[in-house]
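3.2 Worked example (two chains)
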Amino acid sequence: PAVSALHALAVRSGHLPADLRLANSLLARYLALGSHASARRLFADIPRPDAVTWNTLLRACLRSGLLPSARQLFDQMPQRDLVSYNSMLSGHAAAGDMAGAQQLFDQMPERDVVSWNSMLGGYTRLGDMEEARRMFDAMPERDVVSWNSMLDGYAQAGDVKMARAMFDGMPRRSAVSWNVVLALYARVKDWRECLRLFDAMMAVGAAVPNEKTFVSVLTACGSLGDLERGKWVHGLVRQRWERIVPDVLLLTALLTMYAKCGVMETAREIFDSMGERSVPSWNSMIIGHGLHGQSEKALELFLEMERSGPRPNETTFVCVLSSCAHGGLVLEGWWCFDRMVRLYGMEPKAEHFGCMMDLLGRAGLPTGSENLVQNLQGKASPALWGAMVSASRAQNGSRLGEFVGKKLIEMKPAEVGPYVLLSNIYAAEGRWDDVEKVREMMKRDGAEKDVGLSLVGSSEPVTRLGTEDGAVVMSMLGEMGAHLKKPATEPQEPKGREGRDATRTCCA
């Protein structure tokens, strides 16, 4: 209404349509308010629109995501300047139309660093780092935006080596530069390097840490259990409280750090102070209680979340099922698992089944585990079956382990691990014919990689295990550890075949 009143007053006083500067200001205001009909009427009344007028309309179309309309307007413009080209270039790049952007870029009579950065940003957003690098190397001049675009592109691709090389080569770094690399180290779980880089950032003092900085650093502190450093970072956040808006992401990172370090009272204080709580906020509190011996509180918090919080997601159920497993809450765990499937319609993932296997294993209920695994046939991935392996060992269930091992082998794994699992189960029971069958399966499936036999208490020569035999070695150590933990018993008659060393554990 105020803009319309001003428009009417300008017309009555005779300033419009003659005053082009005033007309352009009103046009920009109408478009900013979304009053497109009024903007069109005003544009139609302007006798000689200039480049500013056309560019104002062009940017409005692009802001609304109307790329075809913007291109049509661009083609109709009686004259185009660098702003016109850059606006259109940015529009094509933002829409992921790099073919159109490249064509326009090649036609430009002149270019500036904004033009190059638009192209660079478009390629990095698409993950085309080869073209982005070609563009970056060809740039006549670069600014911090250019470097940050490349840095972010490598970070999004998870290329830590190239991202760090780009970061180290920057002539000048902004807070964005530091935050991109800090977030990358946090994402790849290189927590110590994340903290080392943060220390370097604070020592240089050229960039002021902000919310994104603290989220990455607090994540690293919590994952390392470094409570003292986490408290120090919390103090830095308090010092900058006036300049930093403690949004839900930062507060969640804070409470997660305290929860992982076992300081649940402080975590709860932060949680209670939050005006808005995200699903990750609830999840962190639930798993925090569960991991630190407060499974009942974790379950209570889950019920509170159902009553007054956001809708639980798949991760929520991983947290609550894990909490039930740690506390031995078998019935409650089954109730939550059933609720996830029936009430929320979620398809259980490997993590959920892994939690249930852990829960049943800790409770010493092998039959329940077997029933759970049997029901998985036809809908389990290799990752899911792999999650069952440790649980079957924890339950000392050879029948369950045999079933899981066979399922893994049916999926034609590239690693020797599933074969090792199955052969060790057979060897532990003296089923040497079955051990030989597993070895033949390995040869048939091409899973054998010059793997030798390790003989215990035998005069036969021992084949050296190379670096490629890591899975075999780890399996041997796991089996040995399991046997060492068993109480000593009277020596028994070997169950092996005649001519075999019954103490042998076949790993290939």
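3.2.1 Second chain
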Amino acid sequence: MRFLTPAHEAVARSQHSQAMQWFDNLSFDRKVTGITFSLALGIGCGATAYTGMMVTQVKFCLQVRQSALQCQDSQNRPFKMTQEQWDKWGEDGRPDSAVKFRTISPTNPYKPLWAFGAFLGFASSGWMLRHLQESERILSQYRRITEETDLAVARVQGEAEVMLAGTDHTAVIQQAELLASAEVEITGHNVKGQLFEAETAGMSEEEKAEYINFLKSQKTPYLEGTQTLQGIVDPSDKVEGEKDTKAMTGDETATPEPGQANQKQPTENTSPTLEPLNRILGAKRSTLIVGGTGAGKSVTESYMLTKFFQRFPNANVWAIAQKNDSFCGLDKKGRVLLFDPLSPQAAMSAIDEVYNVYDHRRRVTEYRRHEFDNQPVRLILADWHSIYETCKDDQWFSPYLKKISTIITVGRELNVCLLIDTQSFNLAALGLGDSNIRKNLYIIAQGNFSVEEDGTVNDSYGVLLNLITNAKIVDDAEVRAALKARYNQLKPQSKQLGQPLIFISVDPMQLDILPDIRHYKPGQQSKVKLSGYTPEQLNTILLLEFDIDQSPQMPVEVKEEVVQLTQLQQRVLNYLKGKGYKEVDDIRGALKRNGYSTEQIREALAGLVQLEIVNIDDQGRYGAIK
């Protein structure tokens, strides 16, 4: 063993015993025999120490009457104690009715020695086994290094042979090219000589000399030396100084200084926002949407499906529903199965379809599961609480509950998930009795207040309040108190706007007001009240009615809203670009020189998610949207 420092050598030698050095020199068979013997010794000594007694015992009787002795209790157990206890009892004043019946001698007085022998046997066998394992570990590393070395040597030898063969072929080709060029030049010279002889045929020697001098005095029309056509026609190289091309074209890589506008914190924002929903769109985890009647669950579900299909147009989605909803076009594909209380099993085929896909994917090896990232499979269980209450007592329904539970707990890695909307967040009421399943669910809760045309009042805030104050949903007491305070703050505004409150259980938990997204659901268009004509409408009517010739008005310049990021948000976005998804700790580590806290980075990330510049996955990691 090679030691790094003298201190390392001293510690290593102090920890190495002579017994283990002798043990290392034994063959493998003898090592196994020694371990087996020590283990057998420990077992034998332990068994011997477990049997018999090591103290003297006294059996006695109680004289209940003058001639009767009672030597057992009501359960036929004899009265007995140790000799030491009997003597101590006598010193303390033993009654005369207690009569010694018999003295039992110890059968195993050396119990401690046997126990110590068992300890030595087990300890020595464990020590030798651990040493043998360490030797095998080192040997396996040497074997791996040897195999890698042989493979590397073989690879280098192969590359060298290929390189030598290539060099040989290159040399042969170069030789052939040189010989060919030499032959061409020789042939050219011969041809030129023959042409010169043909041109000067019939000339005298003096005429030939004059002709040769004439050819030498002619200037070549070709460019010579380092001359180029661009150098001749472009006189810029004759002018002193250089042009600053950056000053003329501008620096394309320069980025403007980000604005210093304050980014609103999600926890303090009171304006309607879609940030809570956008955080979990496309997440590979089952989602539970909870809310009372009229809370807007179906509208939220339609918004999520619309955005989901925009991102994954070829997603495999099925739905079981009490009402004939379209589910963003799933009804036209035959993927919506209506639940009939008189024939409930027909709708359960959707669960079978999704579970069959799950069963197929779970058999795929783990290195190929990344192929499912863009092939999501979803099962929508609409109004599931009422469906469960209808079928819960039927024996055929139990396997379907097991399939649902399996998809919730295991389907995330296979991108097979559920979307359940219900009026209860009690898992037992949904047929999922294990409360730990809740940890594998994203929970969305909504509450709203509305008045129907007939005067009926729908107040569904109660379910939302019960959920955010439930310790099983929000285990942190401080977070529960903060959510309740925010609920009391936003509820009046939600009533006034007629927009639902929404809560998501994704860390960090959020409670916000949803904007009006009813246009995502057919038949739920927002009602627009016209209180009169605008000046632009009146002007148009005047022109059309009386054909008044008016000078064309200047078009109104519409300024596109430019999103200004804070300096921290810009730095976080620059770090995330091209790096995939990163944890908050990774981002903080990259920006630690700037002194930003984790809370500041979380607030900046929340703002970027709200602006749909950064996305968050189901593991709470953040990545820049391309």
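3.3 Remarks
The first strand starts at residue 57 and ends at 63.
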